[in-house]
Amino acid sequence: MQTNLVRALRAVIRHNGLRPAMLDVAKSYSWREFGERVGRGAGALQAQGVGAGARFAVLARNGFRFEELKWAGFWLGAIPVPINWRLAPPEIAALLEDSGAVALLIENHFQGVLDHAAMSAWKSKAILIGDVAGPTLGAYEEMLARAAPPSPADPAPDDDAMLIYTGGTTGRSKGVRLTHANIIANAMAFGLAIGARREQTYLHAAPMFHSADLLAMGWFLQGAAQCFLPAFSPTAFLEAIQQFRVGAVVTVPTMLVATVSDPNFVKFDLSSLKTLIYGAAPMAIEWIERVAKAFPAVNFSNSYGLTETAPDLTVFDPLEFRAAIERAAATGDRSGPLTSVGKPNAGNEISIVTREGREAKPGEAGELIARGPNIMKGYWNRPEETAAALKDGWLHTGDIARIDEDGYVYLLDRLKDMVITGGENVYSSEVEAVLHRHPAVAEAAVIGVPDERLGETVMAVIVPKPATAPNQEEIAQHCRQFLGGYKIPRRFAFVERLPRSAMGKVLKTELRKSYAGTR
Question: What values do phi and psi take at 30, rounded to 5?
Answer without folding.
Answer: -75, 170
